[in-house]
Amino acid sequence: MSMSKKEKPATGFHFTWDTAILNLLFIVWVLASFTTDNFLSSINVSQIFSNTSEIMIIALPVTFLIITGEIDLSIASTLALSSSVLGWTYLHGAPIWLSIIIAIATGGLCGFINGFLVTKTRLVALAVTIGTLALYRGIAAGILGTTTVNEFPEGWTSFGFDTFGTTFIPKTLPLILVLALVFGLLLHRTPFGRRTFAIGQSPEAAKFAGVNVDRHKMQLFILTGLMSGLAGVVYTFRFSTAQSDNGVGLELLVISACLLGGVSIFGGIGTMWGVLAGVLLAGSVESWLTLSEVNAQWRTIVTGLLLLISVTVPVLIDKVKRSQAKAAIRA
Questions:
Q1: In 3D, which of 187, 186, 157, 183 has the Cα closest to residue 50?
Q2: Among candidates 245, 284, 331, 294, which has minimal Cα distance to 21?
Q3: At 80, phi and psi to the nearest 5?
Q4: What DSSP line would sit under 52-107, residue for residue?
Q5: How far is residue 253's CA from residue 26's CA, in Å, rounded to a whole number?
Q6: CB atoms near residue 99 (< 10 Å)
Q7: Where are the domains of the chain?
C-alpha cells in the first residue's frame, strides 16, 4: 500500500516552515549570546537541554497524535500521576526499578483510557482529555495527598539533573537522542508513519486504503501515555520530588512546541525534526528571557504569543499559496 502521494504536498510546504524555525533558533542563540553574559555558558546550555527533557519526551508521541487530527491535554496530569505512583510505591517498600516500571505502566493505562473513550465511544479527544486532565491530577492528589516524596537513590536523581563529568551534556540527553531517532524513523521511514499521515489527511480515505484507523489511534494514545509516564519518572528524578502538582501547565508547552515546529493543528502535516527545533526554540527563548530578568508574567505572555504565531502563520501562508495557485490557473 503506497501513500507517498499523500505526503508530498505536506513535505514541500513544511520543509520551508521547519527551516524557518531552525533559522530562528540560530538567530535567537546569536542574539541571546550578545545581549546576555552567560547564555552560551556550559551551565546554561546544559540547563536548556535539561529543562526541555520532559517536553521533548512527550512531544515525540504527541506529534503523531496531532498529525492524525487528535490531541491529548491530559499529558501533564499523566506525568503527575506517574510521578505520584513512583513516589508512593517506592515509599511503601518497592524497589526503585519496580517503581519505575509501575509508573510508566500507569502512564500507559492513562493513555489506554483516553484512547478507548475516543475510539470506542466516539467522543471528541479535546473533551475527553480535558476531563481526564482533571481526573488524573485528582487521582494523583488522592494517592499522595500533601505528602512529598523526595528521598530517592542518589544514582537515579543524579541521572535526572547531573551532567557527564565536567561537560555540559545532561545524563538524560542520550536517552532523548535515542528516542528522537526512533520516533523520527518511525514517522518518516515506516508504514506506521505513512498510516499516521494518511489518517490525518483523510480518515475516510485511509479506511478505504485498508488502515484500521481506530486501532492506530488507540496505539498512539497508549504510546503517548507511556511516554508521559517516562517523562514523569525523569521529572521526578530531576527535581528529586514526587508530588501531585508536578508538571502543572506542561501540556501547553508541549503542544505549542509541536505547533511551533510545523505540525498542523488540522492534522496531516508535520516533521519530527521540526518539532525538536520547536522544543529547543521555546526552551531557548525561555532561558534568554530568564537571564534577561524578565518576570514570569511576561514569559507566559511570550509563550502564548509563540503558540498563537505557530497556529496562525502556517494557515495564512497556506491561504496565500492557494490564492496564488488559483490566480495562476486563471491566468
A1: 157
A2: 284
A3: -65, -40
A4: THHHHHHHHHHHHHHHTT---TTHHHHHHHHHHHHHHHHHTT--HHHHHHHHHHHH
A5: 20
A6: 24
A7: 4-323
Confidence of residue 73 (pLDDT cuts 50, 70, 90): very high
Task: Give the three cell numbers for residue 281.
Answer: 526554540
Q: Crossing angle for the helix pair 272-291 and 53-67, nearest 10 degrees?
A: 140
pTM: 0.88
Kindly report, residue by residue over 2-41, the tens digit of the pLDDT.
Answer: 444 444 444 444 446 778 888 889 999 999 999 988 898 8
C-alpha cell at 200: 490525518
Length of the chain: 331
Q: Among positive and negative, which fits the CA dihedral 76, 269, 182, 225?
A: positive
Amino acid present at 244: S
Q: What is the pLDDT of residues 193-240, one digit of tens each?
A: 999 999 999 999 999 999 999 999 999 999 999 999 999 999 999 999
Determine the 3-state secondary structure of 149 from DSSP: strand
Amino acid at 186: L
Q: Which three cell numbers stand for residue 97?
A: 526499578
Please tell me the class of the 4-323 domain.
Answer: mainly alpha
Pairwise CA distance, residues 222 & 229, whole Å? 10
